[in-house]
């Protein structure tokens, strides 16, 4: 289905939702993939637990790039992120940790983007705002708002979806730690212009790239629209988190004056401190070929399946061969970890038997 004209990402998500049927909804982007065995696991959990939301570990596929240097597609995953434990979480406790800045990554919320949310939760949120997606960063917005309406939340260490990462996505265009390509600059401009035409204003100045800043802004919006001051936000802790994240970006995108204006609007008690680059950033800016993005400390096994350079379906098929049958966790950590160990041995065996793969790194 198509709205027939260019609309903001929020409106596009809402339009798609209006055509969705069923008791549970999963959103993914068109550069992402879905694992059939993962869906089978979700169906099993829905039938057994009837949760309000399910979130999971997902693996990442980095699409091939043509510029500045041509690169092949790369699939990233860890064995331990398959067939792991299922944990029952209290949505209100998770929400409280967000307001205290103990949780900062929106993926720790009750996501509908690379997550599964019940129709009951969706309708509860729509009843308060008229529409379900109530922010211009719809995945961040709903990861927080869903926590206000959900009564049960399952966290599963087993992927259901593959998160695609490519140059054509809004996320990469808006929030890349590196210099944008011309195509990405156009995407970012279109995103900003369409958001400005939407009836719902952006929750934050979109010149700010920091994802934690988006989470902070959505906590403020959701707190006002849905919670009536039930949770008190730790402004100082959130400011510290956002400032630290902002340091990862190139100088041209460290818009401290815009960020400070946001802080002033967010917290009436905030005193202007004239934010500026600390000395270590000036030294980094002068250095050559030092990446601005923080590298992950977690070790990953990176795999390029043969023939998967252009087709995410090939990646899905390949992972199906490696992971085997659908996973049915029982909710007991000891039993789930034991099952994970047994299944990991099987995954390694199947991986060794597949001739068409290459290990990277």
Summarize, please.
It is built from 13 helices and 11 strands.
Describe this structure as you would to a colleague.
- The protein has 361 residues and is an alpha+beta fold.
- The protein has 13 helices and 11 strands.
- A 6-stranded mixed β-sheet has the order 2-9-4-5-10-11. The protein has a 5-stranded mixed β-sheet with strand order 1-7-3-8-6.
- Helix 4 crosses helix 5, helix 5 (138-149) runs parallel beside helix 8 (211-227) and helix 8 packs antiparallel against helix 9 (235-246).
- The longest helix has 21 residues, at 333-353.
- The model is unreliable at 288-300 (pLDDT under 50).
Question: What is the secondary structure topology, with strand pairs?
Answer:
Blueprint: H1 9-18, E1 24-26, E2 33-34, H2 36-49, E3 53-56, E4 59-62, E5 74-77, E6 86-89, H3 91-99, E7 115-118, H4 119-129, H5 138-149, E8 153-156, E9 161-165, H6 170-175, H7 182-197, H8 211-227, H9 235-246, H10 256-266, H11 279-286, E10 301-305, H12 312-323, H13 333-353, E11 357-360
Parallel strand pairs: 3-8, 4-9
Antiparallel strand pairs: 1-7, 2-9, 3-7, 4-5, 5-10, 6-8, 10-11
Helix pairs in contact: 3-5, 4-5, 5-8, 8-9
């Amino acid at each position: 289905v198509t709205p027939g004209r260019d609309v903001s990402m929020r409106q596009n998500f809402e339009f798609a939702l209006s055509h969705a049927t069923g008791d549970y909804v999963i959103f993914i982007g068109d550069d992402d993939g879905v694992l059939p065995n993962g869906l089978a696991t979700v169906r099993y959990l829905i039938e057994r637990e009837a949760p309000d939301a399910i979130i999971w570990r997902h693996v990442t596929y980095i699409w091939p790039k043509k510029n500045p240097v041509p690169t092949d597609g790369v699939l990233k995953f860890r064995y331990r992120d398959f067939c792991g434990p299922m944990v029952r979480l209290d949505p209100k406790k998770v929400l409280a940790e967000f307001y205290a800045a103990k949780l900062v990554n929106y993926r720790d919320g009750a996501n509908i983007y690379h997550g599964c949310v019940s129709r009951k939760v969706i309708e509860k949120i729509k009843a308060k705002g008229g529409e379900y997606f109530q922010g211009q960063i719809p995945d961040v917005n709903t990861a927080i708002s869903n926590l206000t309406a959900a009564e049960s939340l399952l966290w599963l260490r087993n992927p259901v979806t593959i998160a695609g990462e490519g140059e054509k996505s809004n996320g990469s265009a808006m929030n890349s730690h590196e210099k944008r390509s011309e195509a990405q600059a156009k995407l970012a401009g279109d995103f900003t212009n369409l958001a400005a035409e939407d009836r719902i204003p952006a929750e934050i100045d979109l010149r700010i790239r920091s994802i934690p800043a988006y989470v902070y802004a959505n906590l403020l919006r959701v707190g006002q629209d849905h919670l009536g001051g039930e949770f008190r936000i730790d402004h100082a802790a959130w400011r510290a988190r956002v400032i630290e994240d902002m340091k990862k970006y190139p100088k041209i995108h460290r818009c401290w004056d815009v960020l400070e204006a946001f802080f002033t609007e967010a917290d009436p008690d905030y005193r202007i401190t004239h934010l500026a680059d600390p000395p270590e950033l000036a030294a980094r800016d002068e250095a050559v070929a030092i990446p601005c993005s923080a590298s992950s400390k977690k070790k990953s096994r990176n795999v390029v399946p043969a023939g998967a350079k252009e087709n995410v379906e090939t990646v899905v098929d390949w992972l199906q061969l490696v992971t085997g049958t659908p996973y049915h966790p029982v909710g007991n950590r000891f039993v789930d970890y034991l099952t994970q160990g047994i299944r990991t041995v099987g995954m390694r065996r199947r991986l060794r038997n597949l001739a068409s793969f290459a290990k990277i790194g």
